[in-house]
Amino acid sequence: MKTVAIIPAAGTGKRMEGRVSKQYLALEGVPILVHTLRKFEGASAVDAVFLVVPAGDADVIRRDMVDFYGLSKVRKILPGGRERQDSVRAGINALPEEAEVVVIHDGVRPFVTADLIGMSVEGAREFGAVSLGVPVKDTVKSVESGGWVEHTMERTKLWLTQTPQAFRREVIREAYRRAFAEGFYGTDDASLVERIGIRVRMLPGLYENIKITTPGDLELGATLVKNRERV
């Protein structure tokens, strides 16, 4: 079990404006989370998956998703915490000593590919810490609270961050240890690594590797699934 993927899927999906957590919603008849897990099931670069879900959901997810869809790489199903970072930390604390690379990927980002997963694993081995991302296409402006534009950002240096993000185990464990000790919460896993002085290498992702967080994302996701099925 040299490469372990931690997939946090313990969110409530408030922006989806529904009663069902977004990771359980269906894309073309299959739960979003299952679409995501299938990508890791088919990725030869990953040996095992640790899935982090809402407390109390583990038995249902094991029966209705993991066992039903034959997702054999899911070795652990762990209860999540209050924030995404707490859920990832639960996965990190459960890592076996033989784990060398840790891949962290959003449970509601189902359009990742095996190639992207493999690239992130190789990148972590080479650089220690990597993130996927895509260059910003639009002009980005800094705007003050009153709505007035402060200045236009230098677009050539701006990237939209995606997952997977991947790290050597000792790097991400130390980053999370220090964040927990100091009560720091970041916007992504790479930010925890950056704050302890370790550089993160950005690797090219795909624009279609979207995170499904709103009803509009769900509609776009359904279109992407149909397009892939046609191909």
Radius of gyration computed on alpha carbons: 18 Å
Summed up, the domain count is 1
Number of strands: 11
Relative strand content: 15-25%
What's the rounded overall pLDDT mean? Answer: 93
Structural class: alpha/beta
- Assigned CATH superfamily: Spore Coat Polysaccharide Biosynthesis Protein SpsA, Chain A
CATH architecture: Alpha-Beta Complex
Would you tell me which CATH topology applies?
Answer: Spore Coat Polysaccharide Biosynthesis Protein SpsA, Chain A
Q: Which CATH class is shown?
A: Alpha Beta
Counted by DSSP, the helix tally is 7
| H/E element order | EEEHEHEHEHEEEEHHEH
Strand order across the largest sheet: 5-4-1-6-10-7-11
What is the share of helical residues? Answer: 25-40%
Described by strand count, sense and barrel closure, the largest sheet is:
7 strands, mixed
Spatial gap, N to C terminus: 33 Å
Sequence-ordered SSE layout with sheet pairings:
Elements: E1 3-8, E2 26-27, E3 30-31, H1 32-41, E4 48-53, H2 58-67, E5 74-79, H3 84-93, E6 101-104, H4 114-127, E7 129-135, E8 141-143, E9 149-152, E10 159-168, H5 169-182, H6 189-194, E11 201-204, H7 215-230
Parallel strand pairs: 1-4, 1-6, 4-5, 7-11
Antiparallel strand pairs: 2-3, 6-10, 7-10, 8-9
